[in-house]
Amino acid sequence: MKAYVYGASGPEITDVAKPTPKGTQVLVKVHACGLNRADLGMTKGHAHGAAGGVGTVLGMEWAGEVAELGPDAKGVKVGDKIMGSGGAAFAEYTLADHGRLFRSPSNMNFDEAATLPVALATMHNAVVTNGALQAGQTVLIQGASSGVGLMAMQIAKLKGAKLVVGSSTDAMRRGRLKEFGADLAVDSKDPGWVDQVLQATNGEGVDLIVDQISGPVANQNLKATKVKGRIVNVGRLGGTHADFNFDLHAARRIHYIGVTFRTRSIEEIREIFNEVRKDIWPAVEARKLQLPIDQVYKFADIGKAFEHMEANKHLGKIVVTL
C-alpha cells in the first residue's frame, strides 16, 4: 500500500506492507487525514513521544471505514464509518485501538470528520477534565487560532463560560476568533494583553488558561490568572524553556497542570475518548462543534499540504484525501 514515510532523504510517498490488526486493533481504510503541528516536526525527523525517525509512517489523525477487526476488537463492525487518532495515519490503511476512535456522524463527510479527533480529545481533556471549567467562569485560550484552539473556545462556550478570551499573533486570524466563541481577542506579543484580560475580568484575571504557547508567555499567564485559578499547559509552541516567576505562582496559588498524549497509556486514552462521547458527542452530531477546513489536498500532493502548513497562513485544518 502507499504511505507517507520519513526516510533517509526526508518524507516521501512509498510502498509499505499493509498492516494486520491484532488484539483490540481495527484496520481502517483511510479516506482523509487531518494535519497537525506535531506532524510537521516529524517530517523533519523529530520524534513525537516514542514515534519518529527513519522508517516512520507519518500522520496521527484520520477518517475512514472499518476494513477488518482484530480478534478482541469490540464496538464496531466492518464497513462502519469512523474517525480517530493514532500513528501511521498517512497511508491507505492504518491501525487503531478500538477505544481510540469515534463513529462518524451521518451528517459529516470524511474530510470534515478527519478534522475532529485530535481537537476533541485534546481540548475536552484540557478544558473540562483537567481545566475543570464550570458554567459562569472565564477562560483564556493561548494559541486560539490553531485547530485545537478553535475547538477549545467552542467547548468552553458549550460548557457555559461567561467570558472566552482567545489569543493569536496574526491580525487576520485574530479578527476571526469571535466566529468560534471568543468574546475578546488579544495579541500575545502585545505587551498590553494582560491588562486587556484584567480589564475584562474586573481586575481579577481568568479562572482558567489553556496554554499552547508556554515559553515567552509563562509569566504573563501567571499575572492574567485569578488567585486560585488554573493553568493547563498543553503545548510548547513558544519553546520548551523560559524564565518562570515562582514567587508569583505561589502568591496567586495557581494550579499549574501539564497534559500530553505522549506519555499516556492506551487505557488513559480510551478513557479520554469515552469522556468525549459521554459529555459532548450530541454537540458534535448537531454540528455545534466543528472546525473550518482551510484547504484540501490529494494524497499525491501531501508535500504541498505541509508547505502550506509551514507557511502558517491558514485558519482551521488542512486535510489530505486518499
Please, could you describe this protein's structure?
The protein is built from ten helices and 16 strands. It has helices spanning 37-42, 110-113, 117-130, 147-158, 171-176, 193-200, 218-224, 246-251, 266-285, 302-311, and strands spanning 2-7, 10-15, 25-34, 56-57, 61-69, 81-85, 93-97, 101-103, 138-142, 163-167, 184-186, 206-211, 225-233, 255-258, 293-298, 317-321. The strands form three sheets. Strands 3, 5, 6, 7, 8, 15 and 16 form a seven-stranded mixed beta sheet that branches. β12, α7 and β13 (225-233) form a beta-alpha-beta unit. The chain is globular and about 60 Å long.
Shape: globular
> Number of helical runs?
10
What would the average pLDDT be, to the nearest integer?
A: 95
- Terminus-to-terminus distance: 12 Å
Major beta sheet summary = 7 strands, mixed
The share of residues in extended strands comes to 25-35%
Radius of gyration: 20 Å
The succession of helices and strands, N to C, reads EEEHEEEEEHHEHEHEHEHEHEHEHE
Relative helix content: 25-40%
Number of strands: 16
Low-confidence stretches: none
Structural class: alpha/beta
Question: Brief description of this entry?
Answer:
InterPro entries: ADH-like_C, ADH-like_N, ER, GroES-like_sf, NAD(P)-bd_dom_sf, Zinc-ADH_QOR/CCCR. With 322 residues, the protein is α/β, with parallel strands linked by helices.
Question: What keywords describe this structure?
Answer:
29% helix; 10 helices; 16 strands; 6-stranded parallel sheet; alpha/beta
